[in-house]
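Hi team,

Below is the intake form for Katanin p80 subunit B 1 from Mustela putorius furo. Please confirm the fields before the structure is written into the shared record.

FORM ID: S-0412
PROTEIN: Katanin p80 subunit B 1
ORGANISM: Mustela putorius furo
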Amino acid sequence: IVAGSQSGSIRVWDLEAAKILRTLMGHKANICSLDFHPYGEFVASGSQDTNIKLWDIRRKGCVFRYRGHTQAVRCLRFSPDGKWLASAADDHTVKLWDLTAGKMMSEFPGHTGPVNVVEFHPNEYLLASGSSDRTIRFWDLEKFQVVSCIEGEPGPVRSVLFNP
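The structure came back. Fields below:
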């Protein structure tokens, strides 16, 4: 298990031994989001310092840093095939990162409030994002554009999950 802290550190725990295996340092502010890569020993972290980092938890270090958000990164999700990483941030944007190329593939503007959550559809090229603007937007990942928007949620959208 991995745990992100307010100090910006990430601790990797061995649950069977009930001990900390290592501490990963590198963020300068609160860790807001963590996600395990679907294949391999990699973890992505998003922070209030606006950075996204990809960590190799076996080699104890940061493999890559993604920059592009201007405010806190609230949610990270790897695509089901492990090739992309989606990020949601307080700067009202969703960004899609190509892990192999190490750069941003696309930015999805449109929310008018902080974006709290992103989630990939399990088997379609579709990404959902939920925001404090009380909307859920659906993004086509072939055309890289919004395809639908659900408006009028009673409050900020904090969680989105596709039925597998």
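SUMMARY LINE: The longest strand covers residues 19-24.

Thanks, M.
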